[in-house]
Amino acid sequence: MADTHNKEVDQISGVETTGHEWDGLKELNNPLPKWWLYLFYVTIVWAVIYWVLYPSWPLISSYTSGVLGANQRLEAIQAYDDVVAGRSEFADKIVAASLEEVAADQELLQFALANGQAAFGDNCAPCHGSGGTGAEGYPNLQDDTWLWGGTLDDIHTTLEYGIRAGNDDTRIGDMPAFGRDEILSREEVNQVSNYVASRAGLETEDGVDLAAGETLYVDNCAACHGDNLGGIQEMGAPSLTSANYLYGKSLEAIKAQVNNPRNGVMPAWADRLDPATIKSLTVYVHSFGGGQ
């Protein structure tokens, strides 16, 4: 309560004080504007009305349901069901059509691209990037270097069954750890790595026997990567003369991969997404322009 005996008018502001003073600091009597107070009272009244009309107060094992019985969870589920029902006609057509037919039908193609873009953002972009440009260890979907092929059918198979995904139909193309498992000695790893680097247009180390490296390549690597280092798509073995290396194109990166390779994993989306979405993703990824 204000001390009426100590009230005075502040000389600087010209405002009367409340009579309160702390360590020489005096409180000015500046009450809140009437409009602000009325608005505050309105919010209180609105809060009380909201408590009555909508779910608001938690109970021991439930909550007050409110007079209106509104439920945002049920509303969200209904909205989702409405969207699914709205797209079911197109989804059924996409499932029934071949990938080539989807790509040739402008109406289906438009739906597939929109659906695929949404699915890509939710499921693929964290690894491949929002534009599909990839990163080290994650393939660039816009270039022409596709380990397992870049046709519509190839992409669809990869999306369905993944790579090293534990699925019975998954694609597997593991590279041996030539150094870690002592298949090759340290010197031999160095020789074959320098040979591959020389064929890839990279600088090699002085004094390394490239002829010995070629022999080691033929004996240990050619069965997967081909005699000309061009790779074998059916095995998921990359071309070693390509401009694009998944784990870095340098002599040190090649040595690391020969010694103790990184074998990446891609999920099998058939276990997670419906057939229409996988087909839509296939068409959308193919639209990036990479592959065939």
TrEMBL record:
Intracellular or extracellular location(s): Cell inner membrane
Domain of life: Bacteria
Keyword 4Fe-4S belongs to the record: no
Cofactor(s) essential for the protein: heme c
Pfam families: Cytochrom_C, Cytochrome_CBB3, FixP_N
Domain named Cytochrome c: residues: 111-200, 208-289
Annotated keywords: Cell inner membrane, Cell membrane, Electron transport, Heme, Hydrogen ion transport, Ion transport, Iron, Membrane, Metal-binding, Oxidoreductase, Repeat, Respiratory chain, Transmembrane, Transmembrane helix, Transport
Transmembrane segments: 35-53
Note on cofactor: Binds 2 heme C groups per subunit.
InterPro entries hit by this protein: CcoP_N, CcoP_N_sf, Cyt_c-like_dom, Cyt_c-like_dom_sf, Cyt_C_IC, Cyt_c_oxidase_cbb3_su3, Cytochrome_c_Oxidase_Subunit
Pathway(s) per entry: Energy metabolism; oxidative phosphorylation
Record family assignment: Belongs to the CcoP / FixP family.
NCBIfam families hit by this protein: ccoP
Assembly mode: Component of the cbb3-type cytochrome c oxidase at least composed of FixN, FixO, FixQ and FixP.
Record function comment: C-type cytochrome. Part of the cbb3-type cytochrome c oxidase complex. FixP subunit is required for transferring electrons from donor cytochrome c via its heme groups to FixO subunit. From there, electrons are shuttled to the catalytic binuclear center of FixN subunit where oxygen reduction takes place. The complex also functions as a proton pump.
Protein name, as recorded: Cbb3-type cytochrome c oxidase subunit
Source organism (scientific name): Roseibium sediminicola
